[in-house]
Design goal:
Elements lengths: L2 H18 L4 E4 L3 E4 L4 H11 L3 E4 L9 H12 L2 E4 L10 H13 L4 E4 L6 H13 L4 H5 L18 H10 L9
Parallel strand pairs: 2-5, 3-4, 3-5
Antiparallel strand pairs: 1-2
């Protein structure tokens, strides 16, 4: 087996393990947590354990039935604000969308739980934006949120999720970041 194939298999296994396990991570204690789509019991446990006051759902509102119903009911029952901010991992955010997102993140009661389906791509970008624009952290710290450690594999022309990397690069001037 070639070294390249071993490396790809290793990274793929790591990504699968992160996403399959709920991909839950503490980004900024007491302020921001990130995850994949959590089941009802896991979501309830995380809300209680971390005192989550806002859920930012990057999958958007859904038709009746399934995960969205339990998330909406659980949030209402626990007094947690549910923010639906639909994004696609394969489409770049516009400047207007990014500024609206920053405004929502700033105003939302903390701590926040941000999630998409796998907790890797959209959630990574939003975590970067939060760290940079709400928490005032440096570029390097923010950019670490969009990485294979969380299941994100952004490769130009090979992965549609590279749109998240492109979005960040396009937003850096808007956010006053010089870029790397």
């Amino acid at each position: 087996m070639s070294a390249a194939l071993i490396a790809v298999a290793s990274v793929g296994g790591f990504v699968w393990q992160a996403v399959a396990g709920g991909n839950f991570h503490e980004v900024l204690p007491g302020q921001l947590y990130r995850s994949a789509q959590l089941g009802p019991e896991e979501l309830g446990r995380r809300i209680g354990e971390y005192g989550i006051r806002t859920i930012v759902n990057l999958r958007g509102a859904q038709l009746p039935g399934g995960w969205y119903d339990y998330e909406k009911r659980l949030a209402a029952a626990r007094g947690v604000e549910l923010v639906d901010f639909p994004m696609s991992a394969s489409k770049r955010l516009t400047a207007a969308q990014a500024l609206a997102l920053v405004d929502r993140l700033r105003k939302a009661p903390k701590p926040l739980l941000v999630h998409c389906l796998g907790g890797a791509d959209r959630t990574g970008l939003v975590s970067m934006i939060y760290l940079s624009q709400v928490a005032g952290m440096d570029e390097e710290t923010a950019e670490a949120q969009l990485s294979p450690l969380f299941g994100h594999i952004g490769i130009p022309y090979l992965t549609s999720s590279f749109a998240m990397d492109q979005t960040w690069e396009e937003l850096e001037p808007l956010f006053g970041i010089e870029g790397s």
